[in-house]
UniProtKB/TrEMBL annotation:
InterPro entries named in the record: GlpE_sulfurtransferase, Rhodanese-like_dom, Rhodanese-like_dom_sf, TusA-like, TusA-like_sf
Organism of this sequence: Paenibacillus prosopidis
Keyword Nucleotide-binding (UniProt): no
Pfam name, any one: TusA
Protein's name according to its UniProt entry: Rhodanese-related sulfurtransferase
Phylogenetic lineage: Bacteria, Bacillati, Bacillota, Bacilli, Bacillales
Length: 192
C-alpha cells in the first residue's frame, strides 16, 4: 500500500463547523504550492465542508481516510494561478427575519444542511433535513420554483449549499446568518 506524502498536519478533532475549514484555510495560507496538508477531524460534516471548500478555492482535495470516527483529509495546495477567490453567497437572511416571518404565519421552506445529529437535537420548526454532503445527490427532491432558506450552525456550510443550489439553477435561495448557533426562536427536536 502506498502512502501519501504529507507536508503538514492539522489537528481538528473535537471541533465543529466552521473551525476545521477556518483552520485549514489559515494553514494552507502558510504552505507552498504543491504541498499536501493532512487534516484530522471528528466532525462528520467536515467531509462535505472541506471537499466543498477545496472545490470553491481551487485546491485539490486528494482524498479521505476514515478510521473509527476520525476523518483524515488530504488537500494539496494549488498554484497561485489556480487559486480561486472565495466568494460569499450574496443573498442572506437573518435569524431575526426568519423568526418574524414564522411569527407572522408565513409558510417557509427551511433547508437544514447540518448533520443528522445536529438536526435531531434542535432545529427551526418545520425545517427539512438535507445534510450538505447529501445535497447534490438529493437535489431532485427540491423544486426550482420554490424559495428556500438554507440554515446550518454558523452560516458557512449553508453558504456553500446556497452556492451549489445557485449553480444548479435555483434562483430563490437565501443563506441564514448567523444560523443555529445563535437561534433564539422556538425549536423542534427528537424525543430520546
Amino acid at each position: 500500500m502506498s502512502t501519501v506524502k504529507v507536508d503538514r498536519f492539522l489537528e481538528c478533532e473535537g471541533l465543529a463547523c466552521p473551525l476545521p475549514v477556518v483552520r485549514t484555510k489559515k494553514t494552507m495560507d502558510e504552505m507552498n504550492a504543491g504541498e499536501v496538508l493532512e487534516i484530522s477531524a471528528t466532525d462528520k460534516g467536515s467531509v462535505a465542508d472541506l471537499q466543498g471548500w477545496a472545490k470553491r478555492t481551487g485546491h485539490q482535495y486528494v482524498g479521505l481516510r476514515e478510521v473509527k470516527g476520525v476523518y483524515r483529509h488530504f488537500i494539496r495546495k494549488a498554484d497561485a494561478s489556480e487559486i480561486k477567490k472565495e466568494i460569499q453567497y450574496p443573498h442572506a437572511i437573518t435569524n431575526e427575519e426568519i423568526q418574524r416571518k414564522l411569527e407572522a404565519g408565513e409558510n417557509l421552506n427551511i433547508l437544514d444542511v447540518r448533520e443528522p445529529a445536529e438536526y435531531a437535537f434542535g432545529r427551526i420548526p418545520g425545517a427539512i433535513s438535507m445534510p450538505f454532503g447529501e445535497l447534490e445527490g438529493r437535489i431532485g427532491e427540491l423544486s426550482k420554483d420554490q424559495e428556500y432558506i438554507v440554515v446550518c450552525r454558523t452560516g458557512n456550510r449553508s453558504d456553500m449549499a446556497c452556492q451549489l443550489l445557485s449553480e444548479k439553477g435555483f434562483k430563490k435561495v437565501k443563506n441564514t446568518k448567523p444560523g443555529m448557533s445563535e437561534w433564539l426562536g422556538s425549536i423542534e427536536k427528537e424525543d430520546y
